[in-house]
Design goal:
Number of strands: 0
Structural class: mainly alpha
Shape: rod-shaped
Strand content: under 5%
Radius of gyration: 42 Å
Largest sheet: none
Distance between the termini: 141 Å
Number of helices: 1
Order of helices and strands: H
Length: about 100
């Protein structure tokens, strides 16, 4: 009798396990799908972030190059102005000596 009771209990446990397996498998598949979707979204966001960084760096490089060119141009104008002033001052001094 005891063996029969144990057999019935074991059969009941096995049937419960068999019933819960499809539900567990479905839940696991759903969880895997959610995880895969989140990973794909995260990968896409990472790619967008990388693209934004690359664009920002390119823009910064362009701005830096323009700034350097403008600074060099201004330095050249300053040097030319200084040279012109020196020539004018020399001319004034030469005229005063005569």
């Amino acid at each position: 009798m005891r063996i029969a009771t144990l057999a019935i209990v074991a059969l009941g446990a096995m049937s419960l396990a068999a019933c819960s397996q499809p539900a567990e498998k479905a839940a696991e598949a759903q969880a895997d799908a959610v995880e895969a979707k989140a990973e794909a979204a995260a990968d896409q966001m990472g790619a967008q972030a990388d693209a934004m960084k690359a664009n920002a760096e390119a823009a910064a490089d362009s701005i830096e190059a323009k700034g350097e060119a403008a600074a060099e141009s201004l330095e050249a104008k300053a040097e030319a102005t200084k040279e012109a002033a020196e020539k004018k001052a020399d001319a004034i001094e030469d005229a005063a000596r005569k």
